[in-house]
Design brief:
The complex is a heterodimer of chains A (361) and B (661). By secondary structure, chain A is mostly helical. Chain A has 14 helices and three strands. In chain B, strands 2, 3, 4, 5 and 10 form a five-stranded mixed beta sheet that branches. Chain B is 34% helix and 18% strand. With 661 residues, chain B is an alpha+beta fold. In chain B, α3 packs across α4 (105-114), α10 (245-255) packs antiparallel against α22 (581-599) and α13 packs across α15 (378-399). In chain B, a hairpin with a 6-residue loop joins β11 and β12.
Chain lengths: 361, 661
């Protein structure tokens, strides 16, 4: 470790807030799984968090500029891992998303691909020499994110593929996209929508339909949305004493994708708002770190993390309150799951990495 | 140009912060909407999710015979079902489940797959009417197989082998059509209701009111914790029939293996004592669901096993109609003095009408009303018919209820036909031919009756003219107002001259004597009066040419009673394809004998001792002398007691009914 880099500059405030959110998640996982076959997974989640903290420290001491120099290798490695999943992945519920690791664990490579994409996009925009974005820059940046995104879509995993999009969007936005360009892209995307619909899997269409009209088939595809709304709504202001939606298993996936619904049922509007506030503080703290980054690449890295985290929160909590379709995107830091926890802590490690070098030069 | 270290625009970074703030306000608004604005609505929805009303099924009322002996009972039946708890892999549990429920694992898997598309909260019904060891298996594996459960219901336990099947009827799930009818509007889909016979006619009484339990259930429909509220079920009321099981046994035995019907009645009250229709069916097969193939077989059977022939078969009465003719002739002052010489045939309206003796190459010679009855001389009644004319014949026959429903308390009674000039004009727009009158005079031609109708007419004559209404349930045994008692008591009396009554019933008593048409049915020591009949399906001449064709065989009838005047019991037997009334007479007299034996406190022939193999046959009830030699002792009914102890061999048959061919 260079002499001028020190853990004094580690963002302990950020870590504290992150750990509060994680603790709430663990408590809720315990409560939601108490009477199911998943009982006890909260302990596993704690191991993941401890492991994540270790990973965070490890990532924070590597010089991110050094990492950026090697990012093209990592990018190739990321694409290769996605190819591996497509060819040899474990098929579960009709999609190949998981690679079996020795020791019985499963790993979802699409999670850590996010990390590499953040670095790759940061590197790309940091190296740009022009203040304004040319069309060829735009296409190249799009391709960096687009290639892995298409591969994840092919798994098929629409939800995770979508989480790559904000990395590109924030990159382009901060990289100096012109309003005219943005407008043209949005219009093209609008035109491509019917084509996308045509290529969607039936279950994906079903989810979108049930999102638009959840009452059309309350026991079928709209069931998740409906039960989640009931769980959140019955929580009221201070929380429901019986917590029946969660504990009688009406709420699907109460410890993973719908953990926020389970939390909202048990702790009400006050509790849910408190969690939102914690996330908001974390995000604001992160953007502050982006502003104080030592260089352009550092800002892009931190903002990439901000983009992914904010997007996850928007889509997950939006889904729980019925504003967004069911996509299977977990709530970072709270939802049970090793891949998700590890990604978040490694991403925070990169933020720390940038922060700890803010006074270098 | 700018360098590597030049930061992205501050304005854009701040913009990102505001976008994040907007996202959080948007999410907070969503939470506010659900948790504050509409929290009452969602709290109620959560309540509705977890609180479920579970019906407590009410057992149907028992059906008893006139002495309170059980004919139809219920038994509790368990159905195995699978709760589709997502935490279990049903496919991998299928082998163990199949083993415990004695099913084929393939069958279990198929059911799981077949119902995969159904909503999760609907359990899969694996096996109906499971046996006790299968129920024990479910109980014992509550932890290993939490998805396996059972629910209790009631099933009807009918007597075996179709005993009294047509009268009792059967139950089934209420159909869509029935629910649309006003009398069934209070029923719910899935309710079990009477579908035929007494089960249908007295359904309202027999059917109980289901109770309900408010329980907390989880998302898989499994009950959690104690019931919140409970409303007990009101069981259906027991129904006492007028049937005497002892006589019913005799009647069933008499008709075993034949086609036709047999009815026995108390001619003074109209109470039906026994009713048999053959062929029969086993209503236990209908107690829940009958396979389509089995059902179609029953429906398409040319012998019509589903028809209650006692009230639904409409056939020519043949010579039994001569009793009504004789009464009409006496009342009109013709029969007293009518003397006819029978030489095998006679000519009316230019056509030759044969007497049945002609086919035996004999003649009746001089015939008066007495000989006309006991020898069943056709020529005598041809002549009487010619003198009476169809108008007066129809008047008397109609008065005795021919061509009308008797009003018996069973569904779908048939009407029969009493032809007349108006009837022909109305139905065929044709004039009545005089020759038809001659055929109707011996119960042939267009005239048709049901066994119960014919029995009622002759019962009226046997008691001096009182027209009772046959019934299978005594209205005094019913809750007041359920049925109008006056329906059975306000009956008309048809005046019959006592001398004619004596002459006709005396003549009927000679039918079973050596000079009569059914001497073989005579039972020593019992004064039976009766009349045989054999109704042609085709004309006698055609019949003679095709003697071997079964479809053209004549139907044998017999209506008999004891004693000859003011009788205690009247029996009508119809033997389809029975050729001659004397065979029908033998069946009928067996029932009469059983009745008399019972009156005289003699053990009946039909069931003298305990049934072999430890099991007691359903309906095997009999009377016998007690130890002191004169006490009337009732045996039977033990089949209910035996049930729980007996191992149940097969789940498809009702308990106690398995393993019987």
């Amino acid at each position: 470790m260079p002499r001028n880099v020190s853990f004094r500059d580690f963002d302990w405030v950020l870590v504290a807030f992150v750990l509060i959110i994680c603790a709430l998640g663990v408590i809720e996982i315990r409560s939601a799984t108490m009477h199911t076959k998943f009982a006890g997974v909260h302990v596993k989640q704690m191991y993941w968090i401890v492991g994540g903290l270790g990973g965070m420290l490890l990532v924070s001491v590597l010089n991110y500029q050094m990492l950026l120099e090697q990012v093209h290798w990592m990018y190739i490695g990321a694409v290769a891992s996605l190819v591996t999943v497509l060819l040899f992945g474990q098929k579960y519920l009709g999609a190949r998303r998981w690679v079996k690791l020795p020791g019985g664990n499963h790993f979802q490579p699409s999670e850590w691909v996010k990390l590499i994409l953040i670095l790759a996009v940061a590197k790309y925009f940091a190296d740009l020499q022009s203040r304004e974005l040319s069309w060829s820059d735009f296409v190249k940046a799009g391709a960096i994110v687009g290639i892995p995104m298409l591969m994840v879509l092919a798994q098929p995993d629409l939800g995770t593929a979508l989480t790559y999009l904000p990395i590109a969007i924030v990159g382009l936005f901060l990289g100096g996209i012109r309003w005219k360009q943005a407008l043209i892209v949005v219009m093209l995307a609008g035109l491509a929508m019917p084509l996308a619909w045509h290529h969607m899997k039936d279950y994906q269409k079903q989810r979108l339909i049930s999102f638009m009209a959840p009452d059309s088939d309350p026991r079928g595809a709209g069931y998740h949305v409906k039960q989640s709304e009931i769980a959140v709504g019955s929580g009221g202001l201070w929380g429901s004493s019986s917590g029946s939606q969660t504990h009688l298993a009406f709420l699907p996936e109460p410890h993973t994708d719908f953990i926020f619904a389970a939390f909202s049922e048990e702790h009400g509007f006050v509790g849910a708002l408190a969690v939102l506030l914690l996330y908001f503080i974390v995000l604001m703290r992160l953007t502050q770190n982006a502003q104080t980054a030592p260089d352009r690449a550092g800002t892009f890295i931190v903002m990439g993390v901000v983009a992914v985290l904010a997007f996850h929160i928007l889509v997950n909590i939006g889904m729980v309150v019925g504003f967004m379709p069911v996509t299977g995107i977990p709530l970072p830091l709270m939802s049970y799951g090793g891949s998700s926890v590890l990604f978040m802590f490694l991403a925070l490690g990169m933020v720390m990495n940038v922060r700890m070098r803010r006074f270098v030069n | 140009m700018f360098g590597r270290d030049e930061k992205p625009s501050h304005i854009r970074l701040t913009a990102v912060q505001y976008i994040i703030l907007a996202i959080f306000l948007f999410l907070a608004y969503g939470l506010w909407e659900l948790q504050v604005s509409k929290s009452d609505y969602y709290a109620a929805a959560a309540e509705k999710n977890r609180i479920r009303n579970v019906p407590i099924l009410a057992p149907r009322g028992k059906i008893l015979d006139r002495y309170g002996r059980t004919i139809v009972d219920n038994y509790t039946s368990f159905t195995a079902l699978l709760m589709r708890d997502s935490s279990r892999n049903l496919e991998s549990d299928a082998d163990l489940i199949a083993q415990g429920l004695h099913m084929n694992p393939k069958e279990v898997r198929e059911k799981i797959r077949h119902f995969a598309a159904l909503p999760q909260y609907q359990p899969i019904y694996l096996k109906e009417d499971i046996t006790m060891d299968e129920e024990a298996f479910i109980e014992a594996h509550k932890n290993e197989l939490p998805e396996l459960d059972s629910i209790m219901g009631y099933r009807r336990l009918y007597p075996r082998k179709g005993f009294l099947a047509h009268l009792v009827g059967y139950v089934g799930e209420v159909s869509e059509d029935m629910l649309n009818q006003p009398q069934f509007e209070l029923y719910n889909p899935g309710d079990v209701v009477g579908k035929s016979g007494v089960e249908l006619e007295y359904n309202q009484l027999l059917m109980g009111t289901n109770g309900s339990r408010q329980v907390v259930v989880n998302s898989h429909g499994k009950e959690v914790g104690e019931a919140l509220d409970e409303k007990p079920a009101v069981p259906g009321k027991p129904l006492k029939l007028t049937i005497d099981v002892d006589l019913q046994i005799a009647a069933e035995e008499a008709m075993e293996g034949k086609n036709g019907a047999l009815v026995a009645m108390d001619p003074h009250s109209g109470e039906i004592l026994a009713m048999v229709s053959r062929p029969t069916y086993d209503p236990n097969n209908f107690a829940f669901r009958i396979g389509r193939a089995d059902w179609m077989k029953l429906v398409n059977d040319p012998d019509k096993p589903l028809l209650n022939k006692a009230i639904q078969a409409q056939l020519a009465p043949g010579s039994t109609f001569k009793i009504i003719m004789a009464t009409a002739g006496w009342q009109e002052g013709i029969a007293q003095t009518l003397n006819v010489h029978c030489n095998g045939s006679a000519e009316f309206y230019g056509r030759n009408f044969k007497c049945w003796v002609a086919f035996e190459h004999r003649v009746h010679g001089d015939v008066d009303i007495t000989k006309g009855i006991y020898q069943s001389c056709d020529v005598f009644f041809y002549t009487l018919a010619e003198k009476l004319g169809i108008g007066r014949m129809a008047k008397y026959a109609t008065a005795f209820g021919i061509g009308q429903k008797t009003g018996i308390d069973l569904p779908d009674e048939a009407t029969g036909v009493m032809p007349s000039e108006e009837w022909k004009l109305r139905n065929f727009r044709q004039k009545w031919f005089a020759g038809e009158t001659i055929s109707v005079g011996i119960g042939q031609g267009a005239i048709t009756v049901t066994p119960v109708q014919l029995m009622r007419a002759i019962a009226a004559i046997s008691v001096g003219g009182r027209m009772v209404v046959p019934h299978v349930v005594n209205p005094t045994n019913l809750p007041s107002g359920y049925i109008e008692v006056s329906r059975y008591t306000d009956v008309k009396n048809i005046p019959i001259d006592p001398n004619g009554w004596n002459v006709i019933t005396d003549a009927m008593a000679r039918v079973l004597l050596p000079e009569g048409t059914a001497p073989s049915a005579h039972i020593a020591g019992i004064d039976i009066a009766g009349k045989t009949g054999s109704a042609q399906v085709v004309s006698l001449a055609t019949r003679a040419k095709h003697a071997s064709d079964k479809d053209l065989a004549q139907n044998g009838w017999f209506v008999g009673f004891t004693p000859r005047r003011n009788p205690d019991i009247i029996v009508c037997a119809l033997f389809e394809g029975g050729e001659h009334g004397k065979l029908a007479a033998r069946f009928a007299t067996q029932v009469i004998k059983a009745y008399v034996d019972k009156q005289r406190r003699q053990p009946t022939n039909v069931a003298k001792g305990p049934v072999k193999d430890g099991g007691v046959e359903v309906g095997a009830l009999w009377t016998s002398r007690g130890e002191d030699g004169n006490e009337d002792k009732l045996n039977g009914g033990q089949y209910q007691v035996d049930l729980p102890k007996k191992p149940l061999e097969s789940a498809t048959a009702a308990p106690g009914m398995g393993g019987v061919n």
